Amino acid sequence: MLDVVLYNGTVITLANPALAQAVGVRDGRIAHVGTTADLLSLAGAHTKKIDLAGRTVVPGMNDAHAHIWKIGHLLTSMLDVRRVTGIDELVKNVRTFGARLPPGAWLLGRGYNEAAMNEQRAPTRADLDRAEPSRPVVLTRTCGHIYAVNSAALEKAQIAADTVAPTGGEIDRDASGKPTGILRETAMGLINKVMPPPTADDYEQMIVAGLKHQLSLGITSSSDCGVSPQLLDVYRAVDARGALPARINVMPLRRVDGVPEPVPLPQQHVSDMLRVDTVKFLADGGLSGATAALSVPYRHLPTKGLLRFENSELQELCGDAHRAGWRIATHAIGDMAIDQMLEIYEGLGEHPRGLSHRIEHFGLPDAAQLARAARLRVIAAPQTIFIHSLGRNFRSYLPDSYLPRTYPIRAMLDAGVRVALSSDAPVVEDDNPLVGMMAAVTRLDNTGHLIAPAQAITTAEALHAYTMGGAIATGDTDNRGSIEAGKWADLAVLTANPLAISPETLPAAKVDMTLLAGRVVFER
Ligand SMILES: [Zn+2]
């Protein structure tokens, strides 16, 4: 007898047959897919029957690259400044938020983007001192690769005019040589070293809040790309108590900014809810903050971005992980960083467990790099949602020659590179997969400008990349990614069929219900 039947709808299986009317669940897994009549005939007195009334079921979405604890941090104890559009408004938000904190507590915020500011600049220490003269203030830029801090934070970290930036980082200075409060890439580590870390309880609240938020978007399987040993311990403990709200692929870091020695490889861990078998590296920075490593200078600044690692060190750390049977996922956006990674991955040779390594973001590859990636069976984890949210930054910062190959998903698929779409949230505010799909198909940014329209893919390809693509990138196609007998009954019920509506209106399809292992875990 079936535990649950969803009937009288459109089921997009991403398998054979491609479409069905109903799906049945037993013991947390999909038991049957077929017609409404077939499935209802298999239902018994104790079967929960969900009438879809014409709605559409898709496989639970997979966010292949996100930062769940950071999403949760913004939902719990961090100031969210992602919608702020001016320096004065930012100062006011910081001051109001600070008034609620105990004396001396650090004020952490996230999400400023100078391109979205009236003044077209980042906040300085002077702005933040105006808001909070005494307690340390640390605002993370929207990309997560730059801090804006106040004088109290600089003092705590003992960053002064004579402080030398660590390798792979920069301390911005004014004309007199004094730090402006902007710290880039590894220089953020100077602050991390002295900032009080979250407690295990804080972390647990963040994880739970982040995953529950994603369940409301139909995401049943997510990722935390780059976690510290402390956070990894919390994930293991929460999983052991059966308290993870959704499935998650947690990627430990081997290099933590501000920690001098590499982090040793942890124990791998694969349960139904928690997967730990991928290590994360960051080869460069972000495009929107001009720290992604390009081979030519940015349009708006005399910089080519930053490579965060000496080649030899990255090679050695990747080699260790590869030989010990880990999948490697490396953040590489600029063509210089992509080259560095393809060279290193090629040098690693056959994987002892037959795994494919990943390149996260993969923002600006050229045709030769894509062909090489396909040959090396590298999996791409890009974010079309950036086209929607950061198009303005791309248009004003990228040299002309790079714009046509910005997040070139069409070219990736045509070259034979497997693609897992994702949000990288909270880097952008919106982690709705339907918005990511819309941008993948329309290539329109949120001001109506086209970004590399020749790189458009179809809605069906985008849905595949948000479901099967994620399963491939997680190495778990046996259990997730499509609606087929034997796989986990992780499902999203949508108000409209994404394949039948115009791509511009994809976000109008709402997630009505999310099921994980056949249990309803979200209802609108
Ligand atoms: Zn990321």
Overview of this protein structure:
With 524 residues, this protein is an alpha/beta fold. It contains 16 helices and 26 strands. The strands form 5 sheets. The protein has a 6-stranded mixed sheet, with no helix packed on it. Strands 9-10-11-12-14-13 form a 6-stranded mixed sheet. Helix 11 links the parallel strand 21 (358-361) and strand 22 (379-381). The longest helix is centred in the middle third of the chain and has 16 residues, at 200-215. The two termini are 28 Å apart. Zinc ion binds at residues 65, 67, 225, 424.
Write a brief structural summary:
It is built from 16 helices and 26 strands. It is an alpha/beta fold and 524 residues long. Strand 4 and strand 5 (29-34) form a beta hairpin.
Q: Roughly what percent helix?
A: 25-40%
Outline:
globular
Averaged pLDDT, please? 95
Oligomer: single chain
Largest sheet geometry: 6 strands, mixed
Structural class: alpha/beta
Unreliable stretches (pLDDT < 50, length at least 5) are: none
Which hetero compounds are present in the coordinates? Answer: zinc ion
For the secondary structure, the number of strands is 26
Ordered list of secondary-structure elements with their pairings:
Layout: E1 4-7, E2 10-12, E3 19-20, E4 22-26, E5 29-34, H1 36-41, E6 48-51, E7 56-59, E8 61-62, H2 68-76, E9 79-80, H3 87-98, E10 107-112, H4 125-131, E11 137-141, E12 146-149, H5 151-156, E13 169-173, E14 179-185, H6 188-192, H7 200-215, E15 219-227, H8 229-240, E16 247-252, E17 269-270, E18 274-276, E19 278-282, H9 311-323, E20 327-332, H10 335-348, E21 358-361, H11 367-375, E22 379-381, H12 385-397, H13 409-415, E23 418-419, H14 433-442, H15 459-466, H16 468-474, E24 491-494, E25 511-516, E26 519-523
Parallel strand pairs: 1-6, 2-7, 8-15, 9-10, 10-11, 15-16, 16-18, 19-20, 20-21, 21-22, 22-23
Antiparallel strand pairs: 1-4, 2-3, 4-5, 7-24, 11-12, 12-14, 13-14, 17-18, 24-25, 25-26
Helix pairs in contact: 2-7, 3-4, 7-8, 9-10, 12-14, 14-15
The structure holds zinc ion.
